[in-house]
Amino acid sequence: MTNAKQILLVGLDPTIVDYAKYPGLTPEKLLAALKADESRLQALGHAATLCFIDRGATAQDTVRAALAQRRVDVVLIGAGVRVDPAQFLLFEKLVNLVHAEAPHARICFNTGPTDSVDAVQRWL
Question: What is the pLDDT of residue 3?
Fold first, then answer.
């Protein structure tokens, strides 16, 4: 995988998501869907890594550390951060952090936990 694209999949830790906002979704279903997309990207030859964050206390530090580990080609910020109005400021901070720490990286967004591959592939 020497030419593998480096993909960072950023999203809320499944243990802290407010599932009342997402009927039918459970921590187990969310984690399974996210891991499935990570595996699909890896099967396509990319180096995909999940990066779970909290709601803000250490989220920026966690993403900053993940970006410092290697040059990342694409950063996906998950819908759990992007579409939840309660996470708006966190979303804004993460976009600006990625822009500052990895200005070469493409930034993309999924619409839910099962279409991350499509979102990433739009920018590869």
Answer: 81
